[in-house]
């Protein structure tokens, strides 16, 4: 595999590099994944050599991988080898720079896709919070909502409350965090953004479909929040 010239080229090689891992014997794939991790550190440090460049890279890295993952029909061991390698390096460097990413995604996507995105971003080192996935898990205990006047509304409220708590906990620990939902209101998104006040976060918001050519909003930059990004 050819050495990437910068972090952007490295991330864009996701499918190609994963395919190369897939074609290798297991022992060789493990060795290649380790080599990728070691190589990635130099590449990232060379690409993001100032605070401003690091912040821009945080935005690009997070959103680009979300779009790339949404293109895939499957995620396998080779995919996760790549994601864990680049995620580990990204995590080490952002921790050293005292910088974390909060990625708020307002997209309606199928349940199987939600599960895939959660697995991929967990491998990248993100805490993934999804009210929809929590609702699916909470619904396995129907007796808990059977007495409610509107069980569906009760389930939604509970899943949102649990999701907000998990988001707060991730922020308190300065972890990279992804909010993944298609049901949150603008008021709820603004409340999540407010939790980042006084915390060293880069805040990115996406409500366009996760395809190339679309845009994201930077709602928190240089330690300042812009709630108008959600309007």
Report on the architecture of this protein:
A six-stranded mixed sheet has the order 2-3-1-4-5-6, sandwiched between helices. The chain has helices at residues 7-12, 14-23, 26-47, 51-71, 77-96, 111-123, 131-138, 151-172, 186-194; strands at residues 100-106, 127-129, 177-181, 201-206, 217-221, 224-225. A hairpin with a 2-residue loop joins β5 (217-221) and β6 (224-225). 57% of the residues lie in helices and 12% in strands. With 231 residues, the protein is α/β, with parallel strands linked by helices. The mean pLDDT is 90.
What is this entry, summarized?
Helices cover 57% and strands 12% of the residues. The protein is α/β, with parallel strands linked by helices.
SSE topology sketch:
Blueprint: H1 7-12, H2 14-23, H3 26-47, H4 51-71, H5 77-96, E1 100-106, H6 111-123, E2 127-129, H7 131-138, H8 151-172, E3 177-181, H9 186-194, E4 201-206, E5 217-221, E6 224-225
Parallel strand pairs: 1-3, 1-4, 2-3
Antiparallel strand pairs: 4-5, 5-6
Let me know the average pLDDT.
Answer: 90
Distance between the termini: 44 Å
Q: Helix proportion of residues, in percent?
A: 55-70%
- Compute the gyration radius: what is it? 18 Å
Shape: globular
As laid out across the biggest beta sheet, the strand order is: 2-3-1-4-5-6
H/E series, N to C?
A: HHHHHEHEHHEHEEE
Indicate the low-confidence ranges by residue numbers.
Answer: none
- Please state the structural category: alpha/beta
Strand content is 5-15%
Main β-sheet: number of strands, strand sense, barrel status? 6 strands, mixed
